[in-house]
């Protein structure tokens, strides 16, 4: 395990309970945390599938083995031993040789769309304070980014950091989001208020239905998972993502990563798939991941031969209507860029995201030195 720093709980004047902060900078250290990490993720104040071990380790092992990690793990000492109550993943940057890293920023690995730390609700403010105290010792500056701004974790973070002289609020953004309506009819009425929009969707479906037998599948049904994954990757690769080199099959290790997390999610009962098929052939496919009482939009693909019928948009709309029959799903996060056209058309609510930066020790001289060294020796790194 990494270096441990004991910090007495705020407000605990006599009791033996302490918060222990450890810095995990290697993958083997993270693997040793997995059992505790899983328990924390399952009961965190805010769920974040991107910081769950099976998702995060899959990406780090596939794409980022040389990433300069610092995963701050906060434990509480209890009578039965230690318990993980906070996990704050960071990437280190700057620095040279023995001088180490100058800055840390929220870890946003390949395919990570949310950087809200995992925090046990009963130790929320205390775990955050302990993590910030440990970061202050190690870094000249720390940046939190892409944190859900409408939940308790960001409130704890901002409250603890705002008193720092070097606190700088970051830019706030928002992305398409859905909170379950009382019914599918209420969703349609609120999201497509103009009658013309509703008629457009109905017309798209009618035109597709004239081309053959049109059917939507909302589960794997009788087909094996591997067949669905093969079909999805091939469909995505033949479209614009393949031409632009952003398809999973076009990214080194992308297909393997996608297969790994989908298999893992499937084994955990957390994979949701849907597809729109014309005479049995997939013309649009979407993959979601379950997290707590919600869904994360993972990936979509469609057949460009039918682009004028907008099969991807139609599938997302039809799935969202059916979603209102699932009583265990309360929300859906698009995980898309703010300007994503399809997500913004189908899911009209918004999820706010925020961040901030704390400059503990301005380092103009060191920064200039590091820049000069790297300019002289381009291959040098910290």
CATH class bucket of the largest domain: Alpha Beta
Number of helices: 12
- The shape, in one word, is elongated
Q: What structural class should be given to the helix and strand makeup? A: alpha+beta
Mean pLDDT: 90
Our Rg estimate from Cα atoms comes to 23 Å
Low-confidence stretches: 8-16
Please name the fourth-level CATH homologous superfamily of the largest domain. Answer: Gcn5-related N-acetyltransferase (GNAT)
Determine the CATH topology of the largest domain: Aminopeptidase
Major sheet summary line: 15 strands, mixed
State which percent range the strand residues make up: 25-35%
The share of residues in helices is 25-40%
Number of domains: 2
First-residue to last-residue Cα separation: 21 Å
Which architecture of the largest domain per CATH? 3-Layer(aba) Sandwich
> What's the β-strand tally?
15
Series of secondary-structure elements, N-terminal to C-terminal: EEHHEEEEHEHEEHHEHHHEEEHEHEH
Describe the protein's topology.
Elements: E1 3-8, E2 18-24, H1 27-43, H2 53-63, E3 69-78, E4 81-93, E5 103-106, E6 118-119, H3 124-138, E7 141-148, H4 152-161, E8 167-169, E9 173-179, H5 184-191, H6 195-209, E10 214-217, H7 225-237, H8 240-244, H9 254-267, E11 271-278, E12 281-291, E13 294-302, H10 311-323, E14 331-333, H11 341-346, E15 349-359, H12 364-376
Parallel strand pairs: 5-7, 13-14
Antiparallel strand pairs: 1-2, 2-3, 3-4, 4-5, 4-6, 7-15, 8-15, 9-14, 9-15, 10-11, 11-12, 12-13
